[in-house]
Amino acid sequence: MGRFARKARRERRAERTQGGLPPVGLSDLELLSLVLAGGTGTLPAREVSGELLARFGSLAEITREHPASLARVPGVGGSAARRLGAAREIGRRVWAEERREPRLYLSGPEDVADLLQEEMACLDREHFRAILLNTKNRILGIRTISIGSLNSSVVHAREVFKAAVSESAQAIVLVHNHPSGIPEPSPEDLMVTERLADAGRILGIEVLDHVILSSTGYVSVKELGHL
After folding, report:
1. 171, burial (CB in 10 Å: exposed 0-12, middle 13-18, buried 19+)
2. For each successive 10 residues of the chain (227 residues), what is the average pLDDT?
3. What distance in Å separates the CA atoms of residue 129 and residue 159, rounded to the nearest whole number?
4. 9 and 84 assigned to the same domain
5. How far, CA to CA in Å, does 190 sit from each of 67, 103, 185, 195?
6. Which end of the chain is more exposed for a tag (fewer CB within 10 A), N or C?
7. Would you say residue 192 lies in a domain?
8. Residue 118 shares a structural domain with residue 74
9. Contact criterion met (CB below 8 Å) for 29 and 56
10. What pTM was estimated for this model as a whole?
11. Residues 158 and 131 occupy one common structural domain
12. Which residues contact 141 (CB under 8 A, 6 or more apart)?
C-alpha cells in the first residue's frame, strides 16, 4: 500500500472517530478537506484541497467550476466532484431560503438594512416597500407598494395601508432605495413620511420608521427626528 493511500485511510479513520469537526473558525483548506474526506481515492483530502485552491484561487472559484472540470484535477475524480457539487447546491438552497424567509423581528433600522440593503441598493429605480409588523414587531410580510423612476416614486396612502389592513398589521416600517447612492432623505421623502404617518394615526397603524437605503449606507428618518 502506498504512502498516500495509508495517509488517506488515516484521515478517514480520524474523521469517523472525531464525529466531525465544527466548521466555525476553520480555514478554507480545512473546510474543503472536510467536504472531500473519503472521496478522493488514494490521495489525501488535504493534498487535493490544496491543489484545488492553488489551481482555482478560492472556494468561490472552485464552486463555479463544472463538476466534469473538477473531476479532471489529479486526485479529485467523479466522487469528490459530486461532493463539491452537492456542497455548492446546499449553499445555494440555504441562501435562497434565507432570502425567502425574512428576519422574524425588527428592533431598529439596522435590522431593516441587514434584511433589504443588499437587494435594494443595486436596483436602478426607486422601489417603495412596507414592512408589516404585529404588536411585538414580528414581520408579517414585506410588500412592494410602488416602483418609480431613477429619483422618485409615487406612493399612495391607500396602497400602503391596504396591505397593512389585509395582514392585520399593527405597525409598519416604510423602506425605499436611492439609486443615486446618497441615502439622505429629500424634502419629498419627508413629506411622504409625514403624510403616511398621519394616515396611520387615523387607522390605528403606527408608522415606526422610514428607512432609506443606498449602496453607501442607510438613513433612518426617525433617527433624524422627523417621526
Report:
1. buried
2. 50 47 72 76 79 88 84 83 84 68 80 92 91 93 85 80 94 95 94 96 97 96 94
3. 10
4. yes
5. 52, 26, 7, 9
6. N
7. yes
8. no
9. no
10. 0.56
11. yes
12. 131, 132, 163, 167
